[in-house]
């Protein structure tokens, strides 16, 4: 399933008595959706740029192929014309290879930068998840401690209060106080 910023913004959670603050959850979801939207836009931009660069490399490949075709045709000409055509073709090929090499180098550098950005964003995402997990763990520990405190304060069923008979409620009536 592909998650979109709109999916994050529209996400609803069940309300419970001891749940999280609704406004905080909604604010956090909006922040996550905005960050996700920026990441998606950045990735789409990088993909468009990569497509353009690949198209340019393909153009240079076609140009190189065309130059080679011209070279084959020139070889069928007279020896003098062939030598001149060979030199010219070699210059064109070298220029095309230099240009193609430069474009490929630029594309590789951009891909490396984009890969590093993606890794950084993934690290940030993992960090946020880790922080969220730590927060939730601490809240669970607090709930466990509160439950244990309540259990430790409970009067055991086996203990009867002075003057209490079987079936009597362990709680004193207000009038008895």
Question: Summed up, what is this model?
Answer:
This protein has 177 residues and is an all-alpha fold.
List the defining traits of the structure above.
mainly alpha, 76% helix, 0% strand, 177 residues, rod-shaped, single chain
Q: What does the model show?
A:
- The protein is mainly alpha-helical.
- The protein has one domain (5-10, 21-150).
- It is 76% helix and 0% strand.
- The longest helix has 75 residues, at 79-153.
- It is rod-shaped and about 130 Å long.
- The mean pLDDT is 84.
Q: Based on DSSP secondary structure assignment, what is the total number of beta strands?
A: 0
The figure for the number of domains is 1
DSSP strand (E) fraction? under 5%
Largest sheet: none
| C-alpha-based Rg, rounded | 37 Å
Tally of individual helices: 3
Mean pLDDT: 84
SSE string: HHH
Q: Provide the helix percentage.
A: over 70%
> Distance N terminus to C terminus?
64 Å
Q: Catalogue the unreliable spans.
A: none
> What structural category arises from helix and sheet content?
mainly alpha
| Mass-distribution shape | rod-shaped
